[in-house]
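In response to the reviewer comment on reproducibility (Comment 2.3), we provide here a single inverse folding case reported in full, input and output, so that an independent group could reproduce the run without further information from us. The structure tokens appear first.
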């Protein structure tokens, strides 16, 4: 098996081929353009038994990694920190060249047995993009509403209510005619902001509709959990991706940042908040925990039991989040098993 390490850049990528013993076979520098993929695979065609290792396969190397994965190539992603450590061990120094970096990526892939395979983008990737876009639009809407509140406060005695919408703001403007030229300027600016607000509302609605459609295509059962709406489900599926990359629920909890950290002192045994892990996924689980702790059901029973054991409300919520992480892991694992079984059955029938 030949390992081809790739060090990607914006305008070029460097590929280095190593044999099973780590000996250098060939090096190639390729300009990143429309023909880069064909050039790379054409160069690598002389090694039928090959594996590609791409540094930063989730960021700068995403483009070439996805093209290779979509073509059915064996591709793994190598974190930049792991590649830099491999370079330090191999050379004993920190001097960098593109060829040396690509060789370090290949060496890391040769030695590390648990690198994450690169999977072709699917519905989960679309859900993550839609979820991130909704977060951007929601933040922009909040910023716009805050600016609109400032203008309305100066135009209208007492300002506007907190639950301000575009229609309410327009009605308030019509009810108070401007007195001075400055007030007329404020009114015109407020009208522009109301138009922008309506535009953002339409885009948020379109995003929500598209998210529902993509979520329906996944046939995920996590929406059956209490507190998991289509927006939370999209965020969870988008950030988790392939659940099979987590060997068990404990690894998944570590990724989600719901594994409590021990903070014991003397005879007192206690745990505290875990600030690591995927914070977007952690936020989604926090929302689910708040809903389940509030509404009647097994989640609230578990939360009340932790309070009765002497835990603070924050500690009880963290315990509930950890419990919900296991439930979520089981849902995602079952969904993946059904999907895999369905594919196998389809292949057998064909």
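Designed residues, in position order:
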């Amino acid at each position: 098996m030949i390992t081809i390490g790739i060090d990607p850049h914006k305008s070029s990528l460097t590929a280095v081929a190593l044999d099973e013993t780590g000996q250098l076979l060939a090096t190639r520098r390729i300009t990143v353009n429309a023909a880069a993929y064909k050039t790379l695979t054409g160069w690598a065609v002389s090694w039928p038994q090959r594996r590609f290792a791409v540094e930063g396969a989730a960021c700068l190397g995403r483009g070439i990694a996805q093209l290779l994965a979509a073509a059915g190539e064996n591709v793994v992603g190598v974190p930049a920190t792991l590649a830099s450590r491999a370079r330090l061990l191999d050379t004993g120094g920190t001097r960098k060249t593109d060829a040396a970096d690509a060789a370090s990526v290949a060496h890391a892939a040769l030695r590390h047995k648990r690198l994450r395979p690169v999977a072709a983008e699917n519905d989960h990737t679309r859900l993550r993009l839609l979820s991130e876009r909704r977060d951007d639009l929601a933040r922009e809407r909040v910023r716009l509403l805050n600016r609109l509140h400032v203008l309305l406060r100066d135009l209208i005695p007492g300002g506007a209510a907190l639950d301000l919408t575009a229609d309410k703001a327009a009605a308030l403007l019509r009810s108070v005619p401007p007195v001075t030229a400055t007030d007329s300027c404020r009114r015109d600016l407020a009208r522009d902001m109301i138009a922008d607000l309506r535009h953002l509302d339409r885009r948020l609605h379109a995003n929500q509709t598209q998210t529902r459609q993509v979520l329906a295509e996944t046939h995920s059962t996590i929406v059956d959990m209490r507190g998991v709406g289509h927006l939370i489900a999209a965020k969870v599926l988008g950030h988790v991706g392939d659940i099979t990359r987590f060997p068990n629920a404990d690894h998944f909890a570590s990724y989600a940042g719901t594994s409590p950290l021990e903070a014991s002192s003397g005879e007192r045994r206690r745990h505290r908040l875990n600030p690591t892990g995927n914070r977007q996924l952690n936020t989604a689980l926090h929302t689910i925990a708040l809903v389940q702790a509030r509404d009647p059901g097994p989640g609230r029973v578990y939360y009340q039991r932790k309070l009765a054991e002497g835990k603070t409300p924050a500690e009880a919520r963290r315990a509930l989040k950890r419990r919900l992480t296991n439930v979520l892991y089981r849902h995602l694992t079952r969904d993946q098993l059904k999907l895999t079984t369905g594919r196998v059955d389809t292949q057998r029938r064909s």
